[in-house]
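Suppose a colleague, Dr. K., hands you the sequence of a protein chain of 105 amino acids and asks what its three-dimensional shape might be. Before reaching for any lab equipment, you can write down a predicted structure in token form. Begin with the sequence itself:
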Amino acid sequence: MTESLSPSVRSSPSTDGPRASPSAELLRDLQQIAATPGTEPETLRDLVCGYVGTLKAEGLPPERVIVAVKAAARDAGLRYGDMLESRLALDRIVRWSITEYYRAD
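The predicted structure, expressed as tokens, is then:
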């Protein structure tokens, strides 16, 4: 699945040529995941953590990173079965984001 995701998800950011903004890339990749039943949770986690790392490197504080990740998940239409499953999935995404933001390098 990762081979069809945007280049920033699969490799480190490049300064060569024009690139979509990290949030546009995340939204596009989350939309792909939302449209692909059976996507592995690790794929979603890697995507979210890559985005969080980018936002942190840009100097965003943790509260703005969380807001950005939640907005991207909502805008991408990530839904998991019923309302409870969707809430649990969003909670998991937020947990991954916090863990990644504060991960020691």
